[in-house]
């Protein structure tokens, strides 16, 4: 800020901050007021959150306007933690607090005994400091070993001994995470992992806003917004949210995976590390990016993949990064001037896929690698079907059915691939048509040509072996074999 912050309560009362913070409004009222201003200004409320404009985000806005504590329910990789962290932008940028206070007491109405004593002794000379909104967001990952002392606090016998105080004295308390989040937002990730007795300890905070520590008559009327996240499918495996606690949570908001390929691609483009350092430029063909995203959509529909576990949006993010890295490795090896991924690079990115989904029994029998390959093939077929709608690839298919074949190693250079692709009638022309009008670099043309071959393979119009040998479809090969046998018999007869 342009003007210096007040250093004492007296200076604060004479500053512009007094009008805003002297009223004693709560954190929920503060967030509501700031949200109202953003809505009036038609500003983006949750920058970086894609695909929730018509579903999750309106419900979040309603919860804040209603001054509710809330819980986000959804499978892994649905941006729950990111949404919780983004709530801090609805807090005031700066607020005054008593200097040295562990629970960020308001200098106007301190609630802890130590601050009340200092305020009574010092009056307007009470020293203050200012907290930034980012320092008012506290997050805790729930684990079964979390204790009440971790969350609420405990009596500190060492502090009592040093100060010569009785253990029942409020000044001997060591505050837990919740009191330390006072006047801010407290987030608990994976709530079902929190032991039942700890969840019980949250009752009073959610309903009355106060905590009790170690059974002593200590009442701290905390000012908090409490938000949770949970995976509903984990309730039986790792624990559950106890019913009385759910009853005290104002709004339950369900998240979901991207509804469209376009939303998924936007998220992946935003989150993936694609801007590589170095002298080699990178360019990802849109159909390659679509295939990577379609792999996640295929996995979410595949009966061999466990639906209860979900398929995280991290799958296409890491897959696209790995796909680009494989293309980068090839370009560096052949000293090429640009990095352009192909469909073969998606298959090379299997290590980024197999750890991102859980398999049902049938999938376990098939094996994670084979399931991942099947998913890529299904994704290629889906995307190629959109690009090839109404197009005729008969000339290319005929070339293979007449006995043609070629091997396209993932490590092959652009020049090597182009030389082979030119030998297939109509392939390069179709690749140019797929890329659109204008002149295109050779590496883009190679990527498009390989996409066509992989698309025809995915649609079972040609075949491909594991070592990437493209040939006629297996049925056609068998017919050709029997035709040859018949001709041989005629000659012998």
* Strand arrangement, major sheet: 4-7-10-1-11
What Rg do the Cα atoms give?
31 Å
Q: Helix/strand/pairing class, anyone?
A: alpha/beta
> What is the mean predicted local confidence, pLDDT?
88
Question: The CATH topology of the largest domain is what?
Answer: Rossmann fold
Q: Ends: how far apart? A: 100 Å
Q: CATH homologous superfamily name of the largest domain? A: P-loop containing nucleotide triphosphate hydrolases
Number of strands: 16
CATH class of the largest domain: Alpha Beta
Shape: elongated
- Unreliable spans are 488-493
CATH second-level architecture of the largest domain: 3-Layer(aba) Sandwich
Notable characteristics:
alpha/beta, Rossmann fold, three-stranded antiparallel sheet, 24 helices, 493 residues, elongated
Describe this structure as you would to a colleague:
Strand 8 and strand 9 form a beta hairpin. Helix content is 46%, strand content 13%. The chain is of the alpha/beta class and 493 residues long. It has 24 helices and 16 strands. It starts with 8 loop residues before the first helix and ends with a helix. Helix 14 packs across helix 16, helix 19 crosses helix 23 and helix 22 crosses helix 23. The C terminus is likely disordered. The strands form six sheets. It has a five-stranded parallel beta sheet with strand order 4-7-10-1-11. It folds into two domains: 246 residues, P-loop containing nucleotide triphosphate hydrolases (Rossmann fold); 216 residues, no CATH class.
